């Protein structure tokens, strides 16, 4: 497994990370045993970066990871998002990143994960009621205490990144980045590179849109509530994927491998996070690490899916409002 360093001061991690959200029923029912087996397979293949959030399944995801890494904690780096609040039905009710909330959320995550430290800790979104300096300062206190090793950010814009980095070194920004979502290239990527901050990219397969076969979204799958998976938008996006699939077939790789490799090729400071709950899909994703492109192939991909080609926003309007990265 190839390695990449997160930021100028961060840990060395595998060139591809495993996003674990889907293992807590985010996209419909997930098989617990297969999810744990997938984490084990990832670790066996040299994947060291596991990404989660304390609100994934209201703590379920952290407990699952704890079970999977028991006895192997030193083989992985745990990246944890915090601050998302949900009610008993699972609906989001906002974000809380006050300093006292930082200490509280962290305490619960350490307990659920069965660990004495978290490698990269980050607010899931910018709390509009709390200055980012206060949040990062509170995490920095936990770094001094040894409960957190490094600080990351998630879905924030260039100004917020600069303000946060001025308080404590930020090692990576987690943000959606892929062939169908390139908003990070407008200003954010230039800022992170100037400051020596890496990108951990989620959504590289656009939540399953980029697939060799058309995706069917069930009633219990939250993707069905997002604009890119609805009506004419879905049809237009699947047409883009069909063209990408032709390029992938000509290169003798899968379209998912093409999409993952494209993100990895954006620079040594970019680490794709692949969210999967099955070992077969994981094996496919890991195969993308060794895929390279000629300049001509990159131009061909760009011509098929230029910036802004995707139809529909990546989240519903209410959730888009929480994205400082879109302001």
Automatic annotation (TrEMBL):
<dbReference type="Pfam" id="PF00248">
    <property type="entry name" value="Aldo_ket_red"/>
</dbReference>
<dbReference type="InterPro" id="IPR036812">
    <property type="entry name" value="NAD(P)_OxRdtase_dom_sf"/>
</dbReference>
<protein>
    <submittedName>
        <fullName>Aldo/keto reductase</fullName>
    </submittedName>
</protein>
<keyword id="KW-0560">Oxidoreductase</keyword>
<feature type="domain" description="NADP-dependent oxidoreductase">
    <location>
        <begin position="15"/>
        <end position="304"/>
    </location>
</feature>
<dbReference type="InterPro" id="IPR023210">
    <property type="entry name" value="NADP_OxRdtase_dom"/>
</dbReference>
<dbReference type="InterPro" id="IPR050791">
    <property type="entry name" value="Aldo-Keto_reductase"/>
</dbReference>
């Amino acid at each position: 497994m190839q390695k990449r360093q997160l930021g100028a001061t961060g840990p060395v991690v595998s060139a591809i990370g495993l996003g674990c959200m889907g293992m807590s029923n985010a996209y419909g029912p997930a098989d617990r045993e297969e999810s744990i087996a997938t984490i084990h397979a990832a670790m066996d293949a040299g994947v060291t970066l596991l990404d989660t959030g304390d609100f994934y399944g209201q703590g379920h995801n952290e407990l699952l990871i704890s079970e999977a890494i028991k006895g192997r904690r030193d083989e992985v780096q745990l990246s944890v998002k915090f601050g998302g609040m949900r009610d008993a039905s699972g609906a989001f009710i906002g974000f809380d990143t006050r300093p006292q909330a930082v200490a509280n959320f962290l305490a619960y995550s350490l307990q659920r994960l069965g660990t004495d430290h978290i490698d990269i800790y980050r607010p899931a979104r910018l709390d509009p009621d709390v200055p980012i300096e206060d949040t990062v300062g509170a995490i920095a206190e936990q770094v001094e205490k040894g409960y957190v090793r490094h600080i990351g950010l998630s879905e924030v814009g260039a100004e917020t990144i600069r303000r946060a980095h001025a308080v404590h070194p930020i090692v990576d920004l987690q943000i959606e980045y892929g062939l169908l979502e390139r908003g990070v290239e407008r200003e954010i990527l230039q800022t992170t590179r100037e400051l020596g901050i890496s990108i951990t990219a989620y959504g590289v397969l656009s939540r399953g849109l980029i697939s060799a076969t058309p995706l069917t979204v069930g009633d219990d799958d939250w993707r069905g509530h997002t604009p890119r998976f609805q009506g004419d938008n879905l049809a237009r996006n699947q047409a883009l994927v069909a063209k990408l699939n032709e390029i992938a077939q000509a290169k003798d790789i899968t379209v998912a491998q093409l999409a993952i490799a494209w993100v990895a090729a954006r620079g040594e400071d970019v680490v794709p996070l692949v969210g999967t709950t099955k070992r077969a899909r994981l094996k496919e994703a890991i195969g993308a690490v060794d895929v390279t492109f000629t300049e001509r192939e990159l131009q061909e991909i760009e011509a098929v899916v230029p910036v802004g080609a995707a139809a529909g926003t990546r989240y519903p309007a209410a959730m888009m409002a929480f994205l400082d990265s879109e302001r």
